[in-house]
Fold:
Amino acid sequence: MVVGEMPESVDLLVVGGGPGGYTAALHAARAGRDVVLVDRAGAAGLGGVCLHHGCIPSKALIEVAGRVTAAAEFEESGLTPGSVGFDMARFQSWKNDTVEGLRRGVDGLLGRAKVRVVAGDLRFTRPTQAVIETPEGQATFLEFAHAVVATGSRPVDLPDMPRDGERVLDSADLLALTSLPDSLVVVGGGYIGVELSTACAKLGSRVTIVEADERLLPAMDAKLSRPLGSRLEALGIEVLTDSTVDGLDADGVLVHTPDGPRHVEAATVVTAVGRRPNTDSLGLDTADVKLDDAGRIEVGDDRRATPTIAAIGDVTSGHALAHKATAEAAVAVDALAGRPAAFAPQGVPAVVFGDPEVASAGLSTAEAGARGMDVGSVTFPLTASGRAATMRAATGGGFAELVYERGDGGVVGVHLVGPHASELIGEGVLAIEMGATVEDVSLSIHPHPTLSEQLYEAAHLGVSRTGSHVDARD
Structure:
């Protein structure tokens, strides 16, 4: 601190205006705390990467892509498809308007809660002090009682093929294009790679996915990724697993595959190989905050890293998911205020907005077995769903699976592959968190014909095996 510089006193400091950050600010303000939220872009950055460059833009593109292909896929059902075009530049205009509308909504919520939003780069200088470098190059010093770090993450570059924003893009670059490339290689077959590949293929790009693991979606249970293969093939997407990109050449990329080296023509390369926490420029060591080997902040169940500093979202361990960050926000704020709080969910939903959608919450049978739990599972196939049949979605290997404890029938995992799995998984999370049994689910009337009946029917199958769920066996 400059000699003679008097720091401004702040009750609760929130660093980062993404879903976790603004949720923490609102929760604290509603509890009566005086809150200052610092984001690099100030009010213009509210919503964070999720709103501006990730979750919302990608789902917007996915939705449009699905509409483009839907008519042709219903031709056998009697629909006469016409010519459906797509204008990426017009999409950008609509997407930007949508994002800005949502950003204004967040800004309005913070304003009504009397949260002060400040633009600038923040760096900690002591365990209870920080300095903000404003966009004008000025320094503002803060003395805070408590702080919540929610600065999110950024895409990881490939060492031998760094992003240049022109030929080698990250996911945010791709979602900002005004015209899609004729051909692209997507490096990474996780949820981001699968989602972007599916959307671009539906909109006319020739797509190749290169994944180093032996299968797509390596972070999820293997059965959830299998149904994607045939659909990606039908969309013309080539998938190269157990493969790595060795470098660029004049008109494509060099790929090392199990069958040897291969050249794949591509106008554009999109890297989707993971994300890195934004912790390296925060001066956290001066605040006695410890980082793990991956640069993530080490926190307890109450999300506190020190008695005065908590951290949430992508800067901590676990899935880099917006809804995880928002759930952690209240825990962190309450813990800093001295109220008992712990982040201990039984099921954090993970969703892939591909085609088909994939959604998972709680434990797989393998994960439960590794914990020494005695579990069974029951699966209801999408081919038996009347609603799926009317949607022409009853093929492709979709299903609903319930994983349950054999002793009391408690639901410990729910896994879905099929249309609107992203919406249906909420019921699964509720069942897990409320300690519902498979019999409870089977006794809850679901409307017909709907996709939600998959869970109802799966539960009935589980109960019918013995007439009572207690001590049911596969």
Summary: The chain has three domains: 8-155+276-336, 168-273, 350-473. The first strand starts at residue 8 and ends at 15.
